[in-house]
Design brief:
Helices cover 78% and strands 0% of the residues. The protein is mainly α. Helix 2 packs across helix 3, helix 2 crosses helix 4 and helix 3 packs antiparallel against helix 4.
Length: 69
């Protein structure tokens, strides 16, 4: 069984990705790597100006993926 990283570690990765590639690409990477549930939970731990955008982008990605399917 694969070990799941700590949520605080994923939140740290999220912060670094947002600072590096921007919110939209960061969320796409997080969802691809960790799954929607972990990406959303990690984004809920973020603070700052990009935190709301990251949470919204994770939800929007899920909804848009469902509509495309």
């Amino acid at each position: 069984m694969d070990e799941m990283p700590r949520l605080s570690s994923v939140a740290g990765v999220a912060r670094a990705l947002i600072a590096t590639v921007g919110v939209r690409d960061a969320i796409d990477i997080l969802i691809a790597q960790f799954g929607w549930d972990v990406a959303f939970s990690a984004c809920s731990l973020l603070e700052g100006p990009d935190a709301g955008a990251a949470l919204w982008q994770s939800v929007a990605g899920l909804v848009l993926d469902d509509l495309a399917a």
